Amino acid sequence: MRAYFDNSSTTPVCAPAMEKIREMMEETYGNPSSLHEMGIFAELELKKARKIIADEAGCEPSEIMFCSGGSEANNTALFGAAVKTRPLGDHIITTAVEHMSVLEPLKRLENQGASVEYLPPLEDGTFSADAIVQAAGDKTVLVSVMLCNNETGAVLPVKEAVRALRKKAPKAIIHCDAVQAFCKMPVDVKDLDADLVSFSAHKLHGPKGIGALYIKKGLLLPPLILGGPQENGRRAGTENTPHVAGFGIAVREMASLDKSLIIKMKNQIISGLEAIPGAVVNSPREALPFIINFSVPGIRSEIMLHFLERRGIYVSSASACSKNRRSHVLMAQKLPQELLDSALRVSLSRMNTPGECDYFLETLEFAAKTLRNHRGA
C-alpha cells in the first residue's frame, strides 16, 4: 500500500484539472493577449478561472492577479507594500512562524532599513489577536500574518486583529498568506478585510507553478515583474493559461470536499498517536484538521521518515521549503529539544482514506518499537 500524507507540501492534481490542462495545451493554446480567435478563446478561459477563484475568495475578478505561485504572491505583496508605504514609516509586523517566502523578503527589507517585529506564538502554537494589535504603532506601515500555519495547522486570528489594526494603525497595509487555508476553511477576503491575500494552486489539487494574489480595489502596487501590460499592468509576462484554467477547476472541485471525512481521519490519527507510548501531538487542539504535527521522542525525524518511506508512507519532517533545516515554527514554540529532533508532519487531503490512516498508525507503532529496540541494543 502507498499512503501519501505530505499534502501540505503539494497535492496530486485532480483528474478534472488535469483534463482541463491537457485541453488547454492541445486545443486552446493561443496567447490570451492575441486579437485573433485563438487568443480570444484563451482569454475567455482566463476569465472563467479568474471568476471561479474570485467567487471562492469573496472578491471581484478584477481583484485577482495570477502569478507563478504562493511565493511570488507573497514577494509581490511585501515588496510592493514596502515601496508604497516607505514615506509613511518603517515598522513592519509579522509572526515568527510565517512561511519562508514571507520571512526571507522581510529579512531583505530589514537589511534595507525597515524595522521588522517577529511575534512569537504562545506555547501551543497559537496567537492572540491582542498581541498582534499591541505591537502596532504610529509608524506601522505593513502587517503580514498567515491565516493557517503550514507546519502545525494553527489558525491565526487574522480577522479579529485586522478590525483593531484598522483603528490603531490606519495607514498600514495588511497582507495575509492564505496558501494553506484556501478551500480548506472559509476564506472571504472582504470579511478578513486584508488588503492583500496570497493563494496557490498546488496545495488544493491544482498544478504547480500557478498562484494568485488578491489586491484590494484601489490599492496600486508597483509590479515585481516588469514588461508587458498583462494582469492589468500588475504582473508582466504571458499568462500560464493551461495552469490558470487548471487552478480554476481545482478550486471548483474543492467546493465538493467532504470536510467531515477529513475531521474523522484527523481524529483517527490523533487517537492512534495517543495510544503510542511517548508520542506527542505538537499541533494545537483547534488546528486546521488537514495538518497534524507530532513527535516520537528518541527517534530522529529523518530516521522515522525513511523507515515509513520504505513501507510506502510519505510524511514530512518540516516545511518542504525548509529542507535540511530544523523547523523554525516549532523552535518559535520553544518545544523541548527531544520534540524538535523527532517532529513529523502528517497532512491530509480529499484523496486519503481511513484505511491509509490505519496503515500509517500500525506502521508507526511498529517503527517506534523497532527503532527504540535497535537504539537500546
What does this structure look like?
It is a single chain. The protein has helices spanning 15-26, 37-57, 70-85, 100-111, 129-134, 158-168, 189-192, 241-254, 259-274, 301-309, 328-332, 337-341, 354-376, and strands spanning 3-4, 64-67, 91-95, 115-119, 140-144, 173-177, 196-200, 211-215, 280-281, 291-295, 313-314, 343-347. The chain is α/β, with parallel strands linked by helices and 377 residues long. Helix 2 packs parallel to helix 8. The longest helix is centred in the last third of the chain and has 23 residues, at 354-376. It is globular, with a radius of gyration of 21 Å.
Task: Report a brief summary of the structure.
With 377 residues, the chain is α/β, with parallel strands linked by helices. The protein has helices at 15-26, 37-57, 70-85, 100-111, 129-134, 158-168, 189-192, 241-254, 259-274, 301-309, 328-332, 337-341, 354-376; strands at 3-4, 64-67, 91-95, 115-119, 140-144, 173-177, 196-200, 211-215, 280-281, 291-295, 313-314, 343-347. The protein has a seven-stranded mixed β-sheet with strand order 2-8-7-6-5-3-4, with helices on both faces. Strands 9-10-12 form a three-stranded antiparallel β-sheet. It has a two-stranded parallel sheet with strand order 1-11.
